[in-house]
Amino acid sequence: MSLLNTAHTQPATAGSTKFLSSRGGRLGIMATIVVLLGAIIFFALQQLSTSHAAYQQHKQWHAPAITNINGLKNISQIGSTANVLDFTGKRAMVDPNPYKIVITPANLSSTLKAGDVLVSNIGNEDKGMTLVKFAPVAGKGRVFNMPAANGVSGPSAMAFDGGRLLVANSAGNDVLILNANGSIFQTLKSPLFNGPWGITVGQTNNKDMDNIATFFTSNKLDGKILRVDIKQQERGKPVKFKVTQIGQFGLRDKISKIELRWLPELKVGHDKWKDVLLAVDPSTNRIAGYPFSSKLKHSVKSQTIFKGGPLNNPGGMTINPLNGDALVVNLNNNNLVEINLQKGTVVGVKQVDPAMVDAQGNNSALFGVAAAKDQQGNLKVYFTNDNTNSLNVLSK
Q1: Are 81 and 391 in contact (CB under 8 A)?
Q2: Which of 21, 190, 293, 391 has the fewest CB atoms in 10 Å of its CB?
């Protein structure tokens, strides 16, 4: 019994101590390896996640740009044209019924920046008196034109000419030249003006922002298409000008609301036209062209570029900056139509307001349209909606 007790209480030998020590060391090494492997796996997963996110961002930024309306899916409102602010920041009294749109081409003043969108409010039976400025993101609009006697009245179209804004002032029966702060620089009057409606700027060899180029306008009340040549101008002084009729369109219900756009050149089939004035004829659902428009001495017959469906009483037109197509909005069905002018083919049709237009024109929403590129190079299309009194954008 004592021998057994003595055997159990003997201290560990040197060999057994060495064994236990080496076993504990191996366990420590294995634990360290496990920790290191875990850290490596965690780091690898983090890198993989970061790489995947970078790849997705790379895909997004390097995906082919959407260049026509067929790839555009989203419609969002930029702002209301009825609820806008005046120069003091208070709610302005305006005549709603948003009409035409123009995009500011460059930074022109501390308050008028490149990409800002101007919308004309033509309400009160085409006698509206406000132009509204929006940033190209959602937000409140602000009145752009300064109050003035014999100022904006029935602003049916606008076009930037250098650093100034031309306004087809249909109710005032004149063309206004506005400074970048919204004040009037000059009012142009002519016996040939008869409700100026459309307006577009032609070519100029002088890039001085103070100079006014040759421009074109159309008459609502007699269907005449006019060229306005600037004959003489000195910096900051009123311009001298000459008006020439170069075309004639028919009337529809005793009026002709002709939209105009000018192009330096246009391929039509196998032909290449220079100095082309485009005119939308709502009475015949036609896009017409006037080649060499700056050289015409008298009224000539236009060339038909496209005619018929899906145009349906076209009310506004702009040029797609990514491919040169015409973008047209219809008054009779609230459709946006894209037409390849060179081929004379329809690229796409989108209904951008679901309201059904009746025979009297009730619920007709679309009047103005303008287009630009977004930051990724995709097409985006601004349009006015008279049913909702708003400026909207169709985008990716």
Answers
A1: yes
A2: 21
Give residue 8's pLDDT: 46
Q: Specify the pLDDT at position 162.
A: 83
CATH code of the domain containing 186:
2.120.10.30
Q: How far is CA 22 from CA 10, 11, 32, 35, in A?
A: 22, 19, 15, 20
* Helices vs. strands in the chain: H and E counts, helices first: 3, 24
Distances (CA, A) of 80 to 94, 115, 385: 11, 18, 10
DSSP 8-state code for residue 328: E
Domain end (from 62, 90, 105): 62
Q: Could you tell me if 21 and 147 lie in one domain?
A: no
84 and 56 both lie in a single domain: no
Sites in the chain below the pLDDT cut of 70: 1-28, 31, 34-35, 43-62, 204-210
pLDDT, residue 3, reads 39
Q: Are residues 114 and 203 in the same domain?
A: yes
Cα–Cα dist 323/145, whole Å: 33
Q: What is the model's pLDDT at position 332?
A: 96
- Confirm if 365 and 355 have CB atoms less than 8 A apart: yes
- pLDDT number for residue 303: 96
Q: Please report the pLDDT score of residue 55 as a whole number.
A: 56
Total count of domains within the chain: 2
Tell me the whole-structure pTM to 2 decimals: 0.84
- Cβ atoms 327, 337 nearer than 8 A: yes
Structure tokens at 287: 């896009």
Residue 30 domain boundaries: 2-62
Residue 192: count other Cβ atoms within 10 Å of its Cβ: 15
> Domain boundary residue among 40, 62, 84?
62
Q: How far apart are CA 11 and CA 367, in angstroms?
A: 103
Q: What is the spatial distance between Cα 139 and Cα 142, in angstroms, rounded to a whole number?
A: 10
Nearest C-alpha neighbor of 316 from the set 198, 182, 142: 198
pLDDT reported for residue 205: 56
With contact defined as beta carbons under 8 Å apart, do 118 and 130 qualify?
no
pLDDT of residue 4: 39
Cα–Cα distance measured from residue 172 to residue 150, given in angstroms and rounded to the nearest whole number: 7
pLDDT at 305: 97
pLDDT of residue 24: 59
Distance of CA 54 to the CA centre of its chain: 30
The whole-number pLDDT of residue 41 equals 75
How far is Cα 172 from Cα 152, in angstroms, rounded to an integer? 7
- Amino acid symbol at 151: G
